[in-house]
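This part of the workshop introduces the protein records we will be handling. A record pairs a protein's sequence with a compact description of its fold. Backbone structure tokens are a discrete shorthand for how the chain folds in space. The question running through the whole workshop is how a given chain folds. The record below serves as our worked example for the rest of this section.
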Amino acid sequence: MDLFKSMDNLNTVEEKVNEIKGDAEKVKCLIIGSGPAGYTAAIYAARANLKPILYEGLQPGGQLTTTTEVDNYPGYPEGVTGPVMMEDFKKQAERFGTDCRWGIATSVDFSAKPHKVIIDNNKLIEADSVIIATGATAKYLGLESEEKFKGSGVSACATCDGFFYKGLDVAVVGGGDTACEEASYLAGICNKVYLIVRKDYLRASKAMQERVMKTENIEVLFETNTKEIFGGQTVEGVKLIKRKGEADEHEETIKVSGYFVAIGHKPNSEIFADYLELDEIGYINTIPGTSKTKVEGVFACGDVQDSVYRQAITAAGSGCKAALDAERYLGENGLL
């Protein structure tokens, strides 16, 4: 489910505005979304005296709140849990005056200035600048056992969590470039990597296929689906359904300590589709080298516009860029 999506069937924001009683709240800088990008944008915007208001969405702190240990973010030499790190980010943003609020952006109108954003279907914000940091949602298989072990052996990011499985056996599910990249990365850390592929072929590019096939400690399991992930406090193994043609189907079990889902991400950009330029997957396109979208005064940062790196530190860096771009925009247009 998207973290930020329309919650009714109204065709325009104007229809909803007519239903909302009271005056619109007018702000210089509105940040939609939390996580490393949103909170960093808030820190920079607040220090620039933009008096930012930040709406956190359904998952304050973003995807990192589902991660246990974070060992690759500078400044935490002993590591830190995702929820604690995001709480630190939030406290720092609030220290400089950011108004962090619970709420969901349910619709927008970027057709005229100031930009209009509806929160929770009942509050109208008119913003001189908008920073979108709504992130992306990792796709999962939808298994109950998968949900049970999220953060305790199940992960959607090998770069983030692979280190914790050094020397152990792990599994990766998926057949595209992302899955092959994750499997290749883990192969350099782990003892053995099982690549679980639903079809009888890989969808990845030929170069990635060759890389996987030439890696000795990667075993590709074609025509295989995950039935269940099992374990005690953490993942201990996976029950698989293997097929050889339509008539031959049987169950197998592999022993693994980690299970990585690499079947893609869905950017939380649905409510912006009528106004911003999105790529074929739904990531917001920004002007190269900037956080600027095709709408003046609207900026995008973090995983909602990054289909490549998707790391906390790159998201934070893009949040910094968005705040600086917003500050310059406001100054150049006499809105400070």
